[in-house]
Write a structure and sequence with these properties.
This protein is an alpha+beta fold and 141 residues long. It has 3 helices and 7 strands. It has one domain: Alpha-D-Glucose-1,6-Bisphosphate, Chain A, domain 4.
Length: 141
């Protein structure tokens, strides 16, 4: 069986907070629900996270007007506390997240395989907006 080579998209943000806080806010459901959406008319009303290799996670992303929602989830393949997370989404695409000290903060880099439905630039912008929400939430809470 031939496997299609997927386009990999990389986004990043420099979060001005200690690694312990960055890790906590990136992984705890009560924080995920505060930042996991790409626009102000969306929200994340539910989240669960079993942060360990083989553990599953799921976050519900929904339009605030109730018109649409979906679950973003997958299974972890690698978890190195304060350093790296890797997982496979429910559609089979792979994601790697790294956390590294830089400039007095933590540089968070996400590399993910693009899906085939939407343009690459649209996916990059959506994921970057969510990562920017994470940065803002972590730096201001």
């Amino acid at each position: 069986m031939e496997t299609k080579k997927r386009t990999e998209i990389t986004i990043e943000a420099l979060v001005q907070a200690p690694i312990e806080k960055v890790w906590q806010y990136f992984n705890e459901p009560e924080h995920i629900m505060q930042w996991a959406f790409a626009s102000e008319d969306w929200h994340a009303p539910a989240s669960s996270n079993d942060l360990r290799p083989g553990g599953k996670f799921s976050t519900t992303m929904a339009a605030k007007d109730g018109s649409f929602s979906f679950d973003f989830g997958g299974v972890y393949s690698d978890v190195q506390k304060h350093q790296r997370i890797a997982y496979e989404m429910s559609d089979g695409r792979k994601v790697k997240v790294t956390f590294a000290p830089e400039g007095g903060g933590i540089k968070v880099v996400q590399a993910f395989e693009a899906e085939d439905e939407n343009p690459v630039e649209m996916q990059r912008e959506g994921w970057q907006t969510i990562l920017n929400n994470f940065k803002k939430h972590t730096e201001t809470k």
